[in-house]
Amino acid sequence: MEKMKNGIWLFLIICALAVTVVNSDDSEKTVVKTVKGKKVCTRGWECKEWSVYCCNQTISDFFQTYQFENLFSKRNSPVAHAVGFWDYQSFITASAIYQPLGFGTTGGKLMQMKEVAAFLGHVGCKTSCGYGVATGGPLAWGLCYNREMSPSQSYCDNFYKYTYPCSPGAEYYGRGAIPIYWNYNYGAAGEALKVDLLNHPEYIEQNATIAFQTAIWRWMTPIKKSQPSAHDVFVGNWKPTKNDTLAKRVPGFGTTMNVLYGDMVCGQGDIDAMNNVISHYQYYLDLMGVGREQAGPHDVLTCAEQLAFNPTSSSPASSS
Ligand SMILES: *[C@@H]1O[C@H](CO)[C@@H](O)[C@H](O)[C@H]1NC(C)=O
Ligand SMILES: *[C@@H]1O[C@H](CO)[C@@H](O)[C@H](O)[C@H]1NC(C)=O
Ligand SMILES: *[C@@H]1O[C@H](CO)[C@@H](O)[C@H](O)[C@H]1NC(C)=O
């Protein structure tokens, strides 16, 4: 039923049994119990569900305000298009919904930091205005937008008129930290986040927490039920099938681009639209002190040769 349709920003060329309180400095927020032999925890408001993932560090333990400021250093410069909108706390608040499901909390500290760098790499690239105004270098301009500036249409697909009917007058153009488009994506994200985005798509450009939540929802949610999410392919939750292997899809960063953008970015060879995303990821790994060498080998980073999970040729109306 679902079709992959993605837009791009027009200006771009181109994720209980025993209850004990653990000691240490986390004693005030971490609570541990064992359910069916498995240790589960909560970690205060940031990871308040009982979950195995919450036993690991939370995102704010390893990614702090100064790092956010470094990554997005130009976002409040006068030529930016969302001055004063984006901030660190909105990102951390938004991530609280998905940390108990593994966002930024899977696999130990290195993988956790890499996932945040990868997710924010997509964010920085999709919201960059670094291509015309390169002071500080093109990679310094992430979070420069919070909406598509000159939408060519309102992205209302009547195929979904029973499940996600378009609200009269509403426009479902690209909004958020990883822009979402179309009534059905607004509808599905709104259901997951318990915010009425179908009737109020404008909330995403008015509230930075919601703008990060929809982006994290996109990162954590498969395009189709039978497929992996960008999170799954990145952290190693996904095992490629024989078809995936034939399509050159392997676990890692490259395949996150395949999930999120399909053949607009992947399977086109060594194009700018793909290299821009990779460059943001590598740059953020450096700025976060992880180092780009941790990104792994070229064949894991790229999707130049991959076939799309959801080819646009087999999907009607594409937005791009
Ligand atoms: C938590 O971190 C450890 C390493 O520090 C890792 O082995 C484990 O898989 C992580 N837990 C989850 C649920 O990812
Ligand atoms: C922004 O959205 C969040 C999440 O829905 C909500 O908790 C918060 O109150 C909103 N902020 C404003 C200023 O409306
Ligand atoms: C594998 O690919 C073939 C050819 O594209 C397709 O017919 C088949 O349904 C696919 N199998 C799975 C399990 O996706």
TrEMBL record:
<dbReference type="InterPro" id="IPR023346">
    <property type="entry name" value="Lysozyme-like_dom_sf"/>
</dbReference>
<keyword id="KW-0732">Signal</keyword>
<feature type="domain" description="Glycoside hydrolase family 19 catalytic">
    <location>
        <begin position="67"/>
        <end position="293"/>
    </location>
</feature>
<dbReference type="GO" id="GO:0016998">
    <property type="term" value="P:cell wall macromolecule catabolic process"/>
</dbReference>
<feature type="signal peptide">
    <location>
        <begin position="1"/>
        <end position="24"/>
    </location>
</feature>
<dbReference type="GO" id="GO:0005975">
    <property type="term" value="P:carbohydrate metabolic process"/>
</dbReference>
<dbReference type="GO" id="GO:0008061">
    <property type="term" value="F:chitin binding"/>
</dbReference>
<feature type="disulfide bond">
    <location>
        <begin position="266"/>
        <end position="303"/>
    </location>
</feature>
<comment type="similarity">
    <text>Belongs to the glycosyl hydrolase 19 family. Chitinase class I subfamily.</text>
</comment>
<dbReference type="InterPro" id="IPR000726">
    <property type="entry name" value="Glyco_hydro_19_cat"/>
</dbReference>
<dbReference type="GO" id="GO:0006952">
    <property type="term" value="P:defense response"/>
</dbReference>
<keyword id="KW-0147">Chitin-binding</keyword>
<dbReference type="InterPro" id="IPR016283">
    <property type="entry name" value="Glyco_hydro_19"/>
</dbReference>
<feature type="disulfide bond">
    <location>
        <begin position="156"/>
        <end position="166"/>
    </location>
</feature>
<dbReference type="Pfam" id="PF00182">
    <property type="entry name" value="Glyco_hydro_19"/>
</dbReference>
<keyword id="KW-0611">Plant defense</keyword>
<dbReference type="GO" id="GO:0004568">
    <property type="term" value="F:chitinase activity"/>
</dbReference>
<protein>
    <recommendedName>
        <fullName>Glycoside hydrolase family 19 catalytic domain-containing protein</fullName>
    </recommendedName>
</protein>
<keyword id="KW-1015">Disulfide bond</keyword>
<dbReference type="GO" id="GO:0006032">
    <property type="term" value="P:chitin catabolic process"/>
</dbReference>
